[in-house]
Specification:
There is one protein chain. The chain is built from four helices and no strands. The protein is globular, with a radius of gyration of 14 Å. 0% of the residues are buried. By secondary structure, it is an all-alpha fold. It is 78% helix and 0% strand.
Length: 80
């Protein structure tokens, strides 16, 4: 599959995951701080990608980011 085909597919998957998290886990998400919810998502993603575990641990992906900074980063990514 070419790269342009991946962008719409990733967008659809992103929306599906967002809807699923909200529908199935909204009560849990309401009770968690953003940083904890994000750590949980990273742990879930890692468990689905064991082949990348070593690579990820060598990077600083677990750096704590403030909710404000994270919102800005996500807004920038959505606008691009």
């Amino acid at each position: 599959m070419s790269e342009p085909d991946q962008i719409p597919k990733q967008s659809v998957l992103h929306k599906q995951l967002t809807i699923s998290l909200k529908f199935h886990h909204s009560e849990t998400l309401k009770q968690l701080p953003l940083e904890t919810a994000l750590r949980s998502m990273v742990e879930a993603w890692n468990s689905c990608h064991p082949e990348t575990q070593q690579q990820l641990h060598s990077k600083t992906l677990t750096e704590i980011v403030s909710a404000t900074d994270l919102a800005k980063l996500l807004d920038q990514q959505l606008l691009n």
